[in-house]
Specification:
- The protein contains eight helices and no strands.
- Helix 1 (2-33) packs parallel to helix 7 (205-223), helix 3 (66-91) runs antiparallel to helix 4 (95-118) and helix 6 runs antiparallel to helix 7 (205-223).
- It has one domain: Rhopdopsin 7-helix transmembrane proteins (Up-down Bundle).
- The protein has 234 residues and is mainly α.
Length: 234
């Protein structure tokens, strides 16, 4: 029973708890400071936590409903894009880049939603008790996820690497350098595991989601991003 708990719905439940806590922290800062990067991160983190909650619920109830799965797939595929959007708003002084990336995400979302909710599912793969990932979606829909994961990862990981390099030579900012190392690790874990899952390779997806969320949370907290926002890069 214990092994079944962690294998099927325990890991995503833990991920959802961490994700919603993280979302609350960033949303609180957005309400206080009204920074666009905090709003974008709030959306991305909420999607991350929501996706994990759907995984846990579906595995616990032993029922992956087709409509819920379609919604879940869109949520899981788009979250990295919005996390990357937050980093774009934080890193670049000119908000035009962030605005353009936001427009790109929303434009791609329209056809993605249409095909995700109308394409025939591979119902034989929509089975509770296994890690479904993207295996129940046709290949034509899976391709849409890469329009989010690739640029989102580039911004999120690129921002972390940029910060590591920038703060590496400044001893007084060493803690921020290591914080961004944690963020980079979390990003790599999430992007790699998520991309494999959407391609149908789901081994280790749920523990990887939890691990990635934990690294991101620790990194953001250590960097003081939640408290200082963009000021750390000035």
């Amino acid at each position: 029973m214990k092994d079944e708990f962690w294998a099927h719905w325990g890991w995503p439940l833990a991920t959802a708890i961490v994700g919603f806590y993280f979302t609350f922290l960033v949303l609180k800062q957005y309400i206080e400071r009204r920074r666009l990067h905090q709003l974008a991160w709030t959306v991305g983190l909420f999607l991350y936590a929501l996706g994990a909650l759907i995984e846990s619920y579906s595995e616990f109830s032993l029922s992956w409903e087709p409509l819920i799965y379609r919604f879940y797939y869109v949520v899981a595929a788009t979250l990295v894009g919005f996390l990357g959007l937050g980093t774009a708003y934080l890193i670049f002084r000119r908000k035009t880049i962030g605005h353009l990336f936001l427009a790109y995400l929303l434009i791609i979302l329209l056809p993605f939603l249409y095909f995700a909710f109308t394409a025939p599912l591979k119902l034989e793969n929509l089975v509770p008790g296994i890690t479904v990932g993207g295996k129940a979606m046709p290949d034509s829909v899976r391709l849409f996820s890469f329009f989010y994961t690739i640029p989102g990862t580039i911004f999120l990981l690129g921002g972390a690497v940029y910060s590591v390099v920038r703060f590496a030579a400044k001893k007084e900012y060493a803690y921020r350098m290591w914080a961004n190392v944690l963020i980079a690790i979390g990003t790599i874990v999430i992007a790699f595991a998520g991309s494999l899952a959407r391609a149908g390779k789901t081994v280790g997806l749920y523990p990887a989601e939890m691990l990635g969320a934990t690294f991101l949370l620790l990194g953001f907290l250590k960097a003081g991003t939640l408290e200082k926002g963009r000021e750390q890069l000035k």
